Every structure is written in structure tokens, then in C-alpha cells.
Amino acid sequence: xxxxxxxxxxxxxCLVIFAMATGCSNGKSSSTDNATSEKTGSNGTAxxxxxxxxxxxxxxxxxxxxxxxxxxxxxxxxxxxxxxxATVKMVQFDWGQYNQKMQVISQSGEEYDICFTxxxxxxxxxxxVKGAFVELNGLLDQYGKDIKKVINPKxxxxxxxxxxxxxxxxxxxxxxxxxxxINVGVAEKYGINYKELKNVKDIAALEPYxxxxxxxxxxxxxxxxxDGTWLFNAIAPYDFITSKFAVSFDIDNPGNxxxxxxxxxETPYAKAFVDTMRKYxxxxxxxxxxVTKTDASELDKTGNWLLGAYHYAPLAEIGDSAGKGYKVDVxxxxxxxxxxxxxTGSMHAISVTSKKxxxxxxxxxxxxxxxxxxxxxxxxxxxxxxxxxxxRQVQTQEGKDKYAMPGFAIGNMFLTNLVKGDPDDKWQQxxxxxxxxxxxxxxxxxxxxxxxxxxLAAINNVINEFDRAVFNGALDQQYLQKYITKMKDAxxxxxxxxxxxxxxxxxxxxx
Length: 511
Hints:
By secondary structure, this protein is an alpha/beta fold.
């Protein structure tokens, strides 16, 4: 009898434990949502098998906050709710504030889902390495398969860090191609055949054109309307891996690179560049206030300039002419090159704090493959923010005032509407540009700067002190030497040695 009571008691205990375990299992919440088999919605109601529970996604984006963002994303959410059972809220931070805002958010551990990241804002590599972004290889294979079908493979190759992807690049121009920007009216007035500037990388070769215009115009016209610090980097025969530190290579045959890391301000190229810019500055070919006043909008409005320079995207001269109100054209300095920087110029990452990374990836997949969604996010509501005329998108006044997004930073640009002036084959021209872009020798190399962070911080202070004045011609060679000395004092030799060591190891592993 006693044995029977003990057996019964043990049986009851087992049943209680089993019931408790079953209850805990049913009530367990996951840190990530299972996008294919969720059964319980946020309101507690049962979901059909295979139907994901409704979620809300928070997206942090760079760009000037727009008055109609919430209005547009109300429509976005209606669409995404139908497609992936998710609503989306976009929060924008101004260009100048984005870095700081995202740094605070990251450090606080705030929960969000998607953010804009790149090589120049909300730094991609730094955030990926420190664990702020979710590693996407598996998510992309499972929930972003369509992205891999439409994005240029060079983007994915260049964005991988040790073989892993931490953000989805925006499909746009994959290469960087510096071009001379020409004010056609001024060039024609002085009989300048600006097509001769094609493949001209030497700024000394510009002198005849600059001199001719300067002699024929008053002081209001600026022959060379370009920031020398940008120009120095753009036309240098180097593959920059961090500010002022680069890998030397044959610009016309990058396969012949010697993979030698250099401090670019110590090179003969820098000396020649400074000499020429000093000569131009003294001759009045460059604005006298170029060191302190970087905004060129006044010159753009008046058209009082001959030559500028920028990194090209196919057909950019069409939009540039429309925006300025007078004709401009371009002369490529060299063919386009794909570098780590150019492949990571515009991306979207999923935060490690997100509780629904699968759904975030589903949204990014949709954003980069669904034209209706991409146009809605980038251009707003048809009939309100834009209209369609002759198969071309025309922005309305309300669109200009209340919803104007930075298109390159939103998602797959190949899905956007053609605008006035665009040829029918615009995106085919982009494909051609991307396919012809030559890969840099260090594509995919991301140096780890942890061991040299103090030196780089000190060097950055030196750069801020000298760079604009030296490379815009306001100072001469003796200041370039002071620049070099101060940079060495800050630890530039140590930085070169460390970067060389890492590059050599990267090449060995890559082989």
C-alpha cells in the first residue's frame, strides 16, 4: 500500500513538471521573430500557419527631415502590411547630425531595426566590427534572395568584411570616376575645346585654359572652381584605404600594383600638386576664400566659373544642367574604378538590437526589388508629390517643399522612374558603366585601426590644421614640409607600418 502511494505521488509530480514545462514553452518569447511560422500576433490572436505576426519596423535614415514623411509612410505601411505583415516608420536625421545621433543610439543600446550606413557616415566597418550590425549572410540567403539577383556582384564583394556582409549596398553606380565639370557657355565663349580634357589627370595641363579665361574676364569669374583637397585624392595614382594613407598602383593598369602603403603627402605627386595649386592661387585661378568658404552655390547660380570636378554617375550632366539652369558637360579624367569605398558609399544595415531581423531583411528585399515600394519611398505619393508626364516623373511643388529624398541613399536606384531629360536607356547605361568599372587591387580590404586609433586621431587633427590651406594653394612647399613633420610626430610612420602588415596578411589570406 505504501509503495502504491509513493508511485502515485511520483506520477503526480511528473505530471506537474510536464505541465509547467509545456506552459513555459507556450509562453516563451524569442529575441527574433520566426518569419515563416509565427502563430501568435501582437494582439494575442492566432495567426494562420505560415503567416508571420504583424510587426512594426523602425528605420533611421540620413537626410533633411521632410514634412510629409509620416504621410508617405502611412501609405508605405499599408503596402508592406499586405506584403510582409509589417508597418514601417522612418526617422531622418540631418546630414550634419546623423553621425552623432547614430553614435548615441548605438551606445545606448536602443532598439531599432534598420539604419543607413556607409564609408562616410555612421561608419560601416567600425559598426560592423564592434557588433552593432547583424551579420547578414544567412538572412540574405533565406529572406533576401531577390536582392542577390539584382545587385551588382561587385557591391557584395567590396562590402564583405572577412567574408561576411553586414549591410545591403544600394544598387547604383559601383565605380568612382573623377570628371572635369565644364561650364559650356564660358568654354564656347573663349573657343575652348573642352573635349581635349578627356583623360587629363595632370592639373598642370589645365593652365592654358584657366589663363585664357582669366585674362578675358573680370575678377568675378573663377577659372578653377574645385576644392583642392578633394582634387588631390581624386586624381592621385593611389588606392586610398584611410584618410591620407593609400596603396600605390598603376592607375592605367591596376594589376601591376606593388601593394606598397604610402603616406600620400610625402610623395613626389603631393609636391608637384602643391606647387601647381600655389601657382594657380597666386594667379587668381582659384577663389581667394576657398580655404574658409567651401560652399560653391553662389558660383553655381551666377555661372561665373569654367572648370570644376566631381565623381561621376552616368548622365549626371543632365540633372546638373537642369539644376543650374545652364548647360554643363563633363570630360572623364580616367575610367571608373571600383574600390572598397565606392561599394560602401550607400548601404542599409540591420541593428543587433532588432527583435525582428528576419522581417527587416524581408523589407530590404522588397525595397530593392519592388518598384512600387521603391518609388513610393523615394518619390512620395503620385498625384501629390509627383506626376507622370510622357513616361517621365515630374516633381510637384508639394514634392519639392514637403517630400524630397536623397535618392542615392534610399534603395535600388534602378527601380526609380525616369525624369525629364533622361534617355530611355538610362539604366542600361548604368549597367554598362558598372560592368566597365575596373576593380581596385584592395577591393574588400578593411584595415583594423584599433591598434593605431590614437595615432589616427592625432593625425586627423594635423590634417584639419593643414589640409585645406596646403592643397588649395594658400600655402607653399615649406608648409607641406611642416605638414609632413607634424604628421610624423603624430605617428604616421607607425600607421603606414601597421597598414602594410595588415594588407600583406589580407593578400596572403585572399590567395
